[in-house]
Specification:
Number of strands: 10
Shape: globular
Distance between the termini: 6 Å
Oligomer: single chain
Radius of gyration: 16 Å
Strand order of the largest sheet: 2-1-3-4-10-9-8-6
CATH topology: Rossmann fold
CATH superfamily: Class I glutamine amidotransferase (GATase) domain
Helix content: 25-40%
């Protein structure tokens, strides 16, 4: 793999988290493109060896209100068509599902907080095995969901959300959840998403803080193992 990754960032504090540490350890140069600040059309979507589309609080299909979505969809389409490693987290996963022809829509509720993943058989045979709910919990922060795209492989679910993670071919991984979260970078989430937390039944800032302090250190170790294994696999594709 050419050691360069492009990270599409919608909200400044929703960054690569533990994945950035993994990429740094592997000698990979990380370049952030901040949506709404930089021109999405500027970078060549197939120039980098890895592209990561990160989370954000907008709907993946709300093109009328957010004109940045269409050029981003075009970038993802070109990446997938070229067979290049592409990773989506939360909104990024929803955009990948959209590109692959699946329906993305409001779930009718918010999944906000810590819940372990339940892996499918395919998930247990994939790098997501490190995120098995028997070993670690997982942070969830979304109100939208998506159908599983045709040709995709379901990897993980939760009781509230069947399609938590899927792969497409050998080069695309989509994660509705947030394995990248780090305990030492969580406070900005509580501040930046204060209105969403207040509007979500059962969500509580104090409990989210306590749960993250409890679960995030183990998740960080598990996620780093997962990201490393996935990157090892996709390195053979480029």
């Amino acid at each position: 793999m050419k050691r360069e990754a492009l990270a599409i960032r919608h909200v400044h504090f929703e960054d690569l988290g533990s994945l950035e540490l993994v990429l740094g350890d592997r000698g990979c140069l990380v370049r952030y493109l901040d949506v709404g600040v930089a021109r999405i059309e500027a970078p060549d979507p197939v120039a980098q060896s890895l592209m990561v589309v990160l989370g954000g609080p907008i709907n993946a299909c709300d093109d009328a209100r957010y004109p940045t979505l269409l050029p981003l969809v075009s970038m993802i389409e070109k990446r997938i068509a070229a067979g290049l490693p592409t990773l989506g987290i939360c909104l990024g996963a929803q955009l990948i599902a959209r590109v692959l022809g699946a329906r993305v829509y409001p779930a009718g509720y918010s999944e906000l907080g810590w819940t372990p993943l339940t892996l499918t058989d395919a998930g247990r045979q994939s790098p997501l095995r490190h995120l098995d709910g028997n070993h670690t919990s997982m942070l969830h922060w979304h109100g939208d969901t998506f159908d599983l795209p045709q040709g995709a492989t379901l990897l993980a679910s939760t009781p509230k959300c069947r399609n938590q993670a899927f792969s497409y071919g050998d080069h695309v991984l989509a994660l509705q959840c947030h394995p990248e979260i780090r305990a030492d970078r969580f406070e900005p989430w509580l501040i930046g998403h204060a209105a969403e937390i207040a509007a979500t039944p059962g969500a509580d800032v104090g409990q989210l803080r306590v749960d993250t302090a409890r679960h995030a250190p183990a998740l960080e170790q598990a996620a780093r193992a997962m990201f490393n294994e996935w990157l090892d696999a996709v390195e053979t594709q480029v």
